[in-house]
Automatic annotation (TrEMBL):
One of its GO terms (cellular component) is plasma membrane. This is Spermidine/putrescine ABC transporter. It comes from Paracoccus halophilus. It holds the Pfam family BPD_transp_1. It is a multi-pass membrane protein.
């Protein structure tokens, strides 16, 4: 009886979680402009309208620039943090790592308001660059977690063998360690890219007059005639997010298999 109840709860939970996402492609290919049943005829008009929208293309370009930049910065910082936390013992290690992970538990709106106040007090103009800074901040904890797992699974004897063979610390890191943790680095890049591309609150506060994809979608929800195009855009974003997360999980598992570490779970 307990097993049946748990299965029913799990099915209802999954239905509640994923039913809205499953409705996106249904209405994205529906010719009706009103989001309701019964459906009308099949059409790809909304996708054509989406690709022909100049403002949408500008928002997409901004979002791609922000996502690529913040994922690279967050991953680079995550490499430093993960390497330091897994390889060295130093005073204040616990509090420092806790501070890095703090954006995971803080409400994003609090982080966004704090960043807005700090950046404006420094005299900075709100633009794509300020959004990159904000997204780097919120992506870094995810990058640090992924890369800490990758560095933890390394066999230290490989690094010591490189030193014995005459390699310097930098050359051993570049030639031995980085290739072994490369799947984790790629996983971190893809995860950070996905988080940045989908993030709304930080972009809403810090983008100024520059539109990003999430803020553009939010602005168009006030116009009923634009809803079908937004459903088409949402379908593309969902597919892209699933693909990126699947690739990230593939590289994470590949890295675990390469190092022979125990798999403690992942994204999928």
């Amino acid at each position: 009886m307990k097993g049946s109840g748990l299965r029913a709860y799990a099915l209802l939970y999954l239905l509640f979680l994923y039913a809205p996402i499953l409705l996106l492609p249904i209405f994205a290919f529906n010719s009706g402009t009103v989001i309701s049943f019964p459906l009308k005829s099949f059409t790809t008009e909304w996708f054509g309208q989406m690709f022909g929208n100049a403002t949408l293309r500008r928002a997409l370009t901004n979002s791609l620039i922000i996502a690529v930049s913040s994922s690279v910065l967050a991953t680079c910082l995550g490499i430093f943090a993960a390497r330091a936390s897994t390889r060295f013992a130093f005073p204040g290690k616990g509090p420092i790592m806790g501070l890095i992970m703090l954006p995971l538990v803080l409400p994003e709106i609090i982080v966004a308001i704090a960043l807005l106040v700090v950046l404006l007090s420094l005299g900075m103009t709100l633009n794509v660059f300020t959004v990159i800074l904000g997204h780097t901040l919120i992506c870094m904890p995810y990058a640090a977690v992924i890369l800490s797992t990758a560095f933890n699974s390394l066999d230290r004897s490989l690094e010591e063998a490189a030193y014995d063979l005459g390699e310097t610390k930098w050359s051993a890191f570049r030639l031995v360690i980085l290739p072994l943790v490369m799947p984790g680095i790629i996983s971190s890049l893809l995860m950070s890219f996905t988080i940045s591309l989908d993030e709304f609150i930080i972009a809403f506060f810090l983008a100024g007059n520059e539109p990003t994809l999430p803020t553009y979608i939010f602005s168009q929800l006030r116009f009923p005639k634009q809803i079908p195009m937004i459903m088409a855009l949402g379908t593309v974003l969902v597919v892209l997010s699933i693909v990126l997360l699947t690739i990230a999980e593939y590289f994470r598992r590949r890295g675990v298999a390469r190092t022979g570490a125990k798999d403690t779970g992942g994204f999928l």
